[in-house]
Amino acid sequence: MRDELKQDLAGTVRAVAKLGYEVVEFYAPYYQWAEAQAKDVRKLLDDLGIRCLSTHNGPQSFEAAGISKAIELNQIIGSKYIVLASAGRENSLDAWKAVAERLNQSSEKFQPLGLRAGYHNHAAEFKPMDGKRPMEVLAANTNKDVMLQLDVGTCVEAGSDPVAWINQNPGRIRSIHCKDWSPDAGKGYKVLFAEGVAPWKQIFEAVEKTGGVEYYLIEQEGSAYPPLETAERCLATYKKMRS
């Protein structure tokens, strides 16, 4: 709902709440909100009976000059996790270790304030580099309080097994992006939730038994349908699958 949020934030939040979504995640441009706007968004969420449990962030939210604003905004809107949406194009395992250290340092500042740091993967983190996957480096070099937010579709596209990854990191997969992927030409991430090749039944079992999941987020990178209809179709499938 990115374009819709840019045009009408309040209307978009109302629309997804009306569909039956209980949780939303604001992406990086939220960082530009003024304090007053963040308070308005919190009131809107409260009035609708939905929550924002995490935000996606650029690197500024984890740097000395910008971390205070990220903390303030997330506290206002009631978020629990400040998630680094991407580390950029790191080209060595040492660079990934530096990303891990940045997450650890931020986590130390977040925790006393009731917040947690998180990292959201893309496909690159699951593709081996010098014989090791960057996600393995991140998991091994971050403290256990740093959430490893699993983007299922990109993990699958990279050829990794999401169920195995969950089981290898007990208690750390506290939220997942329910995004699917298909190897069929022209489909890729445009398939709707549960219409690709991700093994959702096994994923849900693993993440609830071992991963420590607290909430699910449905993410879609375009589809054959308008955005709001896409959101409606995906939620209907999710509810049917989980009933």
Overview of this structure, please?
This protein has 243 residues and is of the alpha/beta class. It has 10 helices and 7 strands. Helix 5 (93-110) links the parallel strand 3 (81-84) and strand 4 (116-120). Helix 5 packs parallel to helix 6 and helix 8 packs parallel to helix 9. The model has no long low-confidence stretch (mean pLDDT 97).
Task: List its salient traits.
alpha/beta; single chain
Mind summarizing the main beta sheet? 7 strands, parallel
Average of the residue pLDDT scores: 97
Low-confidence stretches: none
**How many DSSP E strands?**
7
Q: What characteristic shape results from the CA principal axes?
A: globular
Q: Report how far apart the termini are.
A: 26 Å
Question: How many helices does DSSP assign?
Answer: 10
Q: How are the strands ordered across the major sheet?
A: 1-2-3-4-5-6-7
> Percent helix among the residues?
40-55%
Q: What class do helices, strands and sheet pairing give?
A: alpha/beta
Radius of gyration: 17 Å
Instruction: Return the string of H and E elements.
Output: HHEHEHEHEHEHHEHEH
Strand content: 5-15%
